[in-house]
Prior knowledge:
By secondary structure, the protein is of the alpha/beta class. The protein has helices at 154-159, 161-173, 191-203, 223-234, 258-275, 298-310, 327-338, 368-380, 396-404, and strands at residues 3-8, 22-27, 45-50, 55-58, 61-70, 76-83, 86-91, 96-105, 109-119, 124-134, 145-150, 178-182, 207-215, 245-251, 289-294, 317-321, 345-350, 388-394. It has two domains: 45-134, Immunoglobulins (Immunoglobulin-like, Sandwich), CATH 2.60.40; 145-404, Glycosidases (TIM Barrel, Alpha-Beta Barrel). The protein is 27% helix and 31% strand. The chain is elongated.
Amino acid sequence: MRYILVLVVALLSVGGMVAPVVAVDRPAETQPEPIATGPDDHDPDATRDAPDGGVVVSEGSTVTFTVAGTDADGDLFRVGWYLEGHQETDVISGASATTSFASTFDQAGTFTVTAVVYDDDWTPAKATWTVEVEPDDTTGYDNGTTALYVWERGDDIATDEGSRTNFFETAEQYGVDTVYLSSGATADVSPADRSSFIQAAHDRGLAVHALASARGVGQASGVLDEVADVLAYNANRSSQATYDGIHLNIEPYGGSDDVPTVMAEIDGNLTAIENMTVDGETVDSQGLDVSTAVAPWWRTRAEAELTTLLDNPALDYVAIMSYSDTASAIETKITDITALGDVPYEFAVETDDLEGAPESVTFYEEGPEIMTATVATVASGPPQPAQFRGKALHYYGSMLTWNATNGTGS
Length: 410
């Protein structure tokens, strides 16, 4: 058991002499006995200044606790901080004072932090915090989200019961929990059918994000109409029938000179989306996540513009189009983007049969088993794990082909 040294000074003037200082050993968490006081003496008071209630954090988090002490007599003297056998003491004085204590919680569990405020008579007043420390499970395939891009078949799964059933079975097969549903493909779908699909998705634990897309210089502004449509659709509907987010997929189309311009247009769109109001509704008022796809190769053509884009405050996260068929290559492409900013990310892999493209950019030839294993490898130890939120599969049409051909693609 650790001990602290308490010095008790008795100033007794006897015959012109002062009594010596007496040293007393006391266990570290033993609090001193109050000294008897007169009827007019007031007890001190201790209140939690910050946090003002219980605390829930993940492993590795540092929390600063602040206690406010008051004493009507103006006799504040000490504050003792107690946590799992650890003690610290601060000196305070006067009628009111605040003092703080910081601790890093490296293990999961429940902990109690206590601050004891004393006046000069050692009368105590306590403030206590309960700290729940949760395991840090932000990395790992089972814990990250899995999004699935749905393009031209969006209208089918929204309107046809058989297609919808097939989609939900496929989503379950690949562990999908988020759907990027093409706004273009569902533009002519009635609000009733859209609502029916979204409710069915929510019933199965799937979030639905509107997928707004454009290609080429000057085309990015067109997605704003799609976003406005989402806000108007969501208005006055229950959360069970509304979109959960908006995902942008805006790509350069043409020469490399297009890239800086398109990056600037995406950045401008994000700001416009953040400020957009439709019938009094905004993305914030509807609680919509806003995300966009970004490609690592853009960095070589427009690094400054891409960095600005990644720093846009409207972004909740990005989908890094890390199109490769090996874990190491995927990780390299992720790092190309995370090196430019600290925005949360998911990494996307390609499953389409890309005519004319190298086989190494898609899992179409390798099939679903290799894709799933490779994605799991990356997700179990992703670059910049504090920024990692999940992975995305591009896209649903390829999975239907795999299912029809036993995973061979042919």
